[in-house]
Amino acid sequence: MEERMRKLTFFLAACCLGSAAEIRAALEQESVRKPAPDFTLSDASGRPVPLASFRGKPLVLDLWATACGGCVKEIPSFIEIHHAYASKGLAVVGISMDILYEDLKGPAEAWNLVKPFVETHKVDYTILMADDGITKRYSVTELPVTYLIDRHGRIAAKYVGIVNRANMEANINALLAER
Q1: Where are the domains of the chain?
Q2: Is the pTM of this model over 0.85?
Q3: For 2-177, CATH number?
Q4: What's the pLDDT tens digit per position in 30-42?
Q5: Tens-digit pLDDT profile for residues 82-130
Q6: Confidence at residue 116, expressed as pLDDT on a 0 to 100 scale
Q7: What is the spatial distance between Cα 68 and Cα 128, in angstroms, rounded to a whole number?
Q8: In what order do the strands lie in the sheet with 48-50?
């Protein structure tokens, strides 16, 4: 029953977000930012990628799923942001929530959905596969959810819903200017 409710919540959020207003977020003051919950997740080749490997650069961390309408809608913006800001030191990482969103048996089954999606949509930033721990540590109750993490590994902003690109880029520029 709990699993059905969680899936229903994700489904309803995805449906509603397709027509929802874009979300804006203010950057937290540096002095009150909390550390981003740590993780080590696998990429498509099975290589473990720890959150700590992005320390030293601002990070866009997008939690998404292939069948989430709002998630799919904002991915082109994340691709463009990746292209525009990678040379300035920004990292963009997508964490697929497909195992939970689609109630799949495990990473192999999820990658069978995610790899073709990534190829078709020309996603060229890092994609990792979520585990149940991500849902708990990041308190994921709906998708999409996107975090801006500063170069010290602290959460600077959180967007629940489709991000307002202009707002996100302003926040990214502010994070890039921080030392």
Answers
A1: 2-177
A2: yes
A3: 3.40.30.10
A4: 999 999 999 999 9
A5: 999 999 999 999 999 998 878 888 888 999 999 999 999 999 999 999 9
A6: 97
A7: 17
A8: 48-50, 40-43, 126-129, 91-96, 59-64, 145-149, 155-160
